[in-house]
Design goal:
The protein is α+β, with helices and mostly antiparallel strands and 121 residues long. Helix content is 34%, strand content 32%. The chain has a single domain (4-101), classed as 2-Layer Sandwich (GTP Cyclohydrolase I, domain 2), CATH 3.30.1130.
């Protein structure tokens, strides 16, 4: 059985995109996270110390996306995954980063990448 903490629909403003104008102006993104870790201890104890705080996960993830302008959402998603694995006792993380209303010809709600990374070893 795999336990997970899900944090979905985190909307934020950041500076990313292929063109200099996109990076300078910035735009809206949506972040969805799936953290894999054992949750039975927290379920039994009802104690935050036995799990991962999704409020802290939120703060680290948003700060990571906003820390540096990026060309590709792939790069930003990779940085989020690395930051979460380094900071929290999780086994695996799925990061989905969506650029909302990307600048393409036509109406597109979003363009997204999804990456899965796990702790080495």
């Amino acid at each position: 059985m795999e336990d997970r903490i899900l944090l979905s629909g985190v909307e934020l403003f950041a500076h990313g995109g292929v063109t200099a104008e996109e990076r300078q102006t910035g735009q809206r993104y949506r972040l969805d996270l799936e953290l894999h870790l054992p949750l039975s201890r927290a379920a039994a104890s009802d104690d935050l110390r036995d799990t991962v705080s999704y409020a802290e996960v939120h703060d680290v993830s948003v700060a990571t996306v906003r820390a540096h302008a990026f060309n590709l959402i792939e790069s930003a998603a990779e940085r989020v995954a690395s930051a979460l694995l380094a900071r929290f006792p999780i086994d695996r993380v799925t990061v989905r980063l969506t650029k909302l209303s990307p600048p393409v010809d036509g109406i597109v709600a979003g363009a997204a990448v999804e990456i899965v990374r796990q702790r080495a070893g």
